[in-house]
Design goal:
about 5% strand; two-stranded antiparallel sheet
Length: about 170
């Protein structure tokens, strides 16, 4: 893919950085999109776990060991949901940001995209690393996201780690 020369410095770097507001709205849209399947999964598994506890309790011999086993089962279910959530989120971002559109659905709506430091499309592996960094590191107290307000290139921590920029189309 060719970069748009209108937004490239003589050093080969884009200059049309996406502002924090656009990125925030895109993140909210993407958050809603990736949360829907998780909420459905939680509802299905939650109803199943509650049903199992209810049937065990109605058996008449529901003791402390049964309650402990039921609680451990529910904790295991929640752990599985979190693992699925992280895999889904990382896969969503990596797939869309390395695609031809270079943007998740939220970013597409907001007219922004992810590019390399030279304005080119990023690889799937780069997008995967960016998504992992965003999911695991930048979420800590939102510092990684807030950094985009104060850096010259409007980069979050995950952008710096992955050597990427978010630009307007």
């Amino acid at each position: 893919m060719q970069t748009d020369p209108t937004y490239i410095t003589p050093g080969g770097e884009p200059t049309n950085y996406a502002d924090f507001g656009r990125r925030l709205v895109a993140a909210i849209i993407d958050g809603i999109i990736v949360s829907i399947p998780i909420y459905i999964l939680m509802a299905i598994l939650g109803v199943g776990a509650a049903s199992m506890m209810g049937s065990a309790a109605s058996g008449g011999d529901f003791n402390e060991a049964d309650a402990t086993a039921a609680a451990a089962g529910m904790m295991g279910t929640m752990f599985l949901i979190y693992i699925v959530f992280f895999v889904l989120v990382i896969a969503y971002y990596a797939y869309f940001e390395s695609s031809e559109k270079q943007a998740t659905l939220g970013k597409q709506v907001m007219g922004i995209k992810v590019v390399s430091m030279t304005g080119n499309r990023i690889s799937f592996m780069n997008a995967l690393g960016r998504a992992a960094a965003k999911t695991f590191l930048s979420g800590i107290c939102l510092i990684g996201y807030i950094m985009a307000l104060f850096t010259a290139k409007k980069q979050g921590l995950h952008d710096m780690i992955a050597s990427t920029l978010v630009v307007t189309k």
